[in-house]
Design a protein that fits this description.
Blueprint (H helix, E strand, L loop, with lengths): L1 H37 L2 E2 L2 E2 H4 L1 E4 L2 E4 L9 H23 L8 H28 L12 H31 L4 E3 L3 E3 L7 H36 L11 E2 L2
Antiparallel strand pairs: 1-2, 3-4, 4-7, 5-6
This protein binds protoporphyrin IX containing FE (HEM) (2 copies).
The site of one protoporphyrin IX containing FE has 21 residues, from helix 3, helix 4, helix 5 and helix 6.
Length: 243
């Protein structure tokens, strides 16, 4: 009797192990399938490979890969750095220019800011559709990685908040928003001097915070490059050498 029970238990265990093995194989296959699905294909064309262009000895790849930013996000990053810097300088220097320059300088300032807002939407959509590479690990452990993620998040929030405060500032004066000289959006409010003064302060404070944070962020990138000697900065640059 004991032998029969023992044999049944052994048989049950063998079955259980077999089921676990099949389930694990199934899961591994599912993970592989989902990884293959992440390398999106259209009509059998691998989009990651298709987004790669070879120019002389250099490789230009629009999409991100597991270990570096693609040319799409790199271009958006540096274009926005230029626009934000020019926008900030134009905002600061407007009052130092002759009176009849104020209008054109303000127009250029507003246009640079509106372009930042537009490119931000493109950049966030791109990031969602084509996730960027994971941050390079450092000797300072996960706390440093979280600090970097928090810094990037704050930069994104400020890149949104500064132009929105700028638009609110125009509307608070009851003035229409001139969109790249193409059309105007009428202010939904009548002029409110007190509100305008507060929004002006908020816009200036947020813009200065953005610039200070961007300086710290750039300093961190240079520390990565020269002190930690990792690829953080080079993978945010265009393009890479083939082979
Ligand atoms: C990233 C984008 C932007 C940055 C970095 C930025 C930065 C600045 C700075 C530094 C000032 C000067 C503040 C002062 O000392 O008086 C300023 C003023 C101003 N900004 Fe912006 N700004 C941006 C986007 C915008 C946008 C999108 C608009 C509106 C469409 C706008 C409208 C204004 C206005 C109306 C002023 C007040 C100018 C004056 O005092 O006469 N800004 N901005
Ligand atoms: C207005 C100035 C700047 C802003 C608003 C800004 C914003 C950002 C943001 C939001 C990211 C995260 C990208 C993502 O994963 O979606 C990023 C990444 C990066 N930025 Fe900037 N940036 C600025 C200037 C600079 C400068 C001047 C440098 C270089 C000296 C720089 C170097 C980098 C590098 C190397 C990364 C990649 C970080 C990594 O992979 O860990 N940035 N930047």
């Amino acid at each position: 009797m004991k032998n029969i029970l023992g044999a049944r238990r052994a048989g049950f265990m063998t079955h259980l192990l077999a089921i676990i093995c099949i389930a694990r194989q199934g899961r591994a296959a599912a993970v592989m399938r989902s990884q293959q699905a992440r390398r999106k294909t259209i009509s059998g064309v691998d989009l990651l490979t298709a987004s790669r262009v070879k120019i002389g000895g250099l490789i230009m790849q629009w999409r991100n890969s597991a270990d570096r930013y693609g040319a799409g996000l790199v271009t958006l990053h540096w274009l926005m750095v230029v626009l934000i810097s020019c926008g900030w300088l134009l905002g600061q220097l407007k009052d130092a220019t002759p009176r009849d320059w104020h209008g054109p300088v303000q127009f250029l300032h507003n246009s640079a800011g509106l372009l930042v807002l537009l490119l931000l939407v493109v950049r966030l959509a791109w990031r969602l559709a084509d996730p960027p590479p994971a941050l390079e690990p450092t000797r300072f452990g996960p706390a440093a990685t979280w600090a970097a993620k928090l810094g990037h998040g704050a930069l994104y929030v400020l890149m949104l908040a500064v132009p929105i405060a700028g638009i609110t500032l125009i509307f608070s004066a009851g003035r229409p928003l001139n969109v790249f000289g193409l059309f105007e959006i009428a202010s939904p409010w009548v002029r409110d001097r007190e509100f305008g003064r507060s929004v002006h302060e908020v816009h200036e404070l947020l813009a200065n915070t953005l610039i200070i944070l961007a300086f710290l962020h750039a300093a961190a990138a240079l520390v990565h490059h020269w002190v930690l000697r990792d690829r953080t900065l080079t993978r945010m640059l265009l393009p890479r050498r083939a082979g």
